[in-house]
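Bench notes, afternoon.
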Amino acid sequence: MSEGRVSYRARSRARRCLLQALYQWQLTGGEVRDVINQFLEGSEIRGADRDYFTTLMLAIGESVDELDRELEPLMDRSPERLDPVEHAALWIGAHELLHHPEVPLRVVINEAVELAKTFGGEQGHGFVNAVLDRLGARVRQLEAGVR
């Protein structure tokens, strides 16, 4: 791995920690920085891209209302009615689709779907996939092959 490049696995682990941190933050409230610090001190973060985790947690924490506004027209329910795991996976995917064009569309969607499969309810991953597919087609038309 060259200097400045982060492995796919480290980014994937960062997203996994991010989902867990966002879940915790939704349930307990409190300061985003406190949740970040707790995760950075814990063993879950081992092998993860710590900078990516911190950057995304701060950015998502500051923009959940914006992200929900982007997602709401693409869903059959309001953001308030979402399962916390699905909500966190959608926030991660939406944030990356909107603000990280260097991450390929398929990677963003696949990672969010895998998180929903691992941590969410039985059909949650299908919902996450459908919503992020719609968002990806809207915000990354060339990459999604939309004409």
